Amino acid sequence: MRFIEQTGRTVEEAVQAALKALGVSREQVDVEVLAAETRGLLGILGHSQAKVRVSLKAGLAERAAEVLAEILRLMGVEARTEIANEDEQAVYLDIHSSSDLGLLIGKRGQTLGALQLLVAIIANREQPPESRKRIIIDAEGYRDRRERALRAMARSAAQRAVRTGREVALEALNPRERRIVHLALADDPTVTTRSQGEEPDRTVIVSPRRPR
Fold it and tell me: According to CATH, where is 3.30.300.20 located in the chain?
């Protein structure tokens, strides 16, 4: 139940009754006064009760999905948004469309990353600091495909480093992608990894443990 309409002798009495019925606090709802109480003759005759509509505020996940959908609409992108998951640290949203989402994703996911940042700023704006979360947006499974490609790239670089005995520098990567590469090779006994350079050209260097 997302909202309830309630009557009472006063607006406050009606609101309190609605909060009790919904089992929530005042901070979790929006209140719309449909009719204020009126007092008749001598406070008795012609008296009418107050009526309110009390609606649950959208949670962060719902808010983020709404913001994303509106941005896509303004961009002219025909797509639907879906809440894939939510945990204590982040909200995960998916974008689905029958059209090609390549332009929305951008080179190495840069456009998708910018969209993700924008949605996070807007959705978290009215949240208290302790309730704010990261917003992770995916488009037709792009992030999974990119992660698999990065892991394959990391393994290939490690093999080349061991074969040649020389360091291998990967292409420029964003912080999330560098972390994927570091983790992919963290348990490899034949190579080590380190980040090098300045943003946005910072990348990962894969070095053999036994250089020639």
Answer: 60-140
